[in-house]
Amino acid sequence: MSDEFLPFSRPSISQEAIDEVVACLKSGWLATGPRVTQFTDALKTYFAPKGDGLEAPPAKDMRVLPLMSATAGLHFALLAMGLEPGDEVITTPLTFAATLNCIVLAGAKPVLVDIEPGTLNMDVSLIEAAITPHTRAILPVHFAGLPVDLDPLYEIANRHGLRVLEDAAHAIGTEYKGKRIGSFGDTQVFSFHPNKNMTTGEGGCVVTRDAALAEQIERLRFHGIDRQAWNRYGKGGSQDYDIVLPGFKSNMTDIQAALGIHQLRELDGFIARRSELANRYQEALSDWREWTLPKTPLYPHLHAWHLYTPLINEEAAGMNRDEFMLAMKENNIGTGFHYRAIHLHPYYRQAFGFNLGDFPKAEDVSERIVSLPLFPDMTDADHDRVLDVMYSIFN
Ligand SMILES: *Cc1c(COP(=O)(O)O)cnc(C)c1O
User: Fold this and answer.
1) pTM, rounded to two decimals
2) Phi, psi of 30 (to 5 degrees)
3) Active site residue: 109, 179, 196, 329, which one?
4) Percent of the chain as helix, strand, coil, to the nearest 5
5) For the range 1-5, what are the long-range contacts, defined as Cβ-Cβ under 8 Å and sequence gap of 24 or more?
6) What's phi and psi for 273, nearest 5 deg?
7) Would you give the DSSP letter of residue 375?
8) In the annotation, is 26 catalytic?
9) Which DSSP symbol is given to 324?
10) Which tens digit of pLDDT belongs to each residue from 96-119?
11) Residue 307 has pLDDT above 70, yes or no
12) Which domains does the chain have, with CATH numbers?
């Protein structure tokens, strides 16, 4: 094959972002400092509720907490929600390991509800039946950047007095009924991993409107200390501090924030290009018998297209998903697998007694799902190449 390898995902890093990282390195301040503050303020503006087509000033009660990863954000948000052994958190089986691992690490028990086969999001109509006296929170995942149906979800949560923690790792830029994910609701966690819609190398942030929760996450992310390090050493500040709990070490660094400041400015353009490419797949593949294509819900929304994930129809394709992925790789095209249904992993089977057959819709998707190449710098020629190779593999 003469064509060079086309990955399924690749971050776009502008010269401005590179220059900012270099400037940060030369500044002498590498850990949490002024660039993290600047990035935090930019995120606050980004997540501000929109009013009449204009960006409103940041909501007073909104708190944005950058971290080393979304995993840390999920972990700390759940810890800060005060979960106790025996408490239950309702989530989806079609998600990344971090979603469930964090529930377990926070001392609670994951309770799963099956997915909607079309949107691949958790089926909100199944939540109420999964609620028990031990349920404390609902943890929806906006799969691939498509928003979960939040109105009925929050209605159920409010009626039962439950917290809502949205795993928005795929969903920076996603909108639900005209509102950006992160601009309303209880608490959201975003990821800035290099495969996600924008990156800080590794990184993430929590957005919440609960000041007490935010303060607890601040302590958890930095040694259980109340104030940020750079304030301690700032002019007039005391170097003394109180440790109020045994915290972790997951603060974002200025090197990460230097990248994030520019990625956030470029995000709308990234998402516009992702949408173009996703729509191009939807159109090109619409009459292929080999694929069942992603479906979009009827409620108004903006899809951030973190992933493009059709399901293979094994009989028509004459091969299964794994064979398809291998054939693509042999043709120098990368694909992704998001995700094996989480309840089928050894730990979750053993610790919580999950079995094959428990969530049949997620299991069917888990057998057939594949992520095709999708990233902002992908050209139309790259896209044509993916389609041509798929055509040759199937025919
Ligand atoms: C990527 C991802 C996470 C974890 O994000 P990190 O920033 O890598 O910790 C959590 N949940 C989902 C659904 C993800 O895709």
Assistant:
1) 0.96
2) -105, -30
3) 196
4) 40, 15, 45
5) 1/331, 1/332, 3/332, 3/385, 4/332, 5/332, 5/333, 5/334
6) -70, -40
7) -
8) no
9) H
10) 999 999 999 999 999 999 999 999
11) yes
12) 15-265 (3.40.640.10), 267-394 (3.90.1150.10)
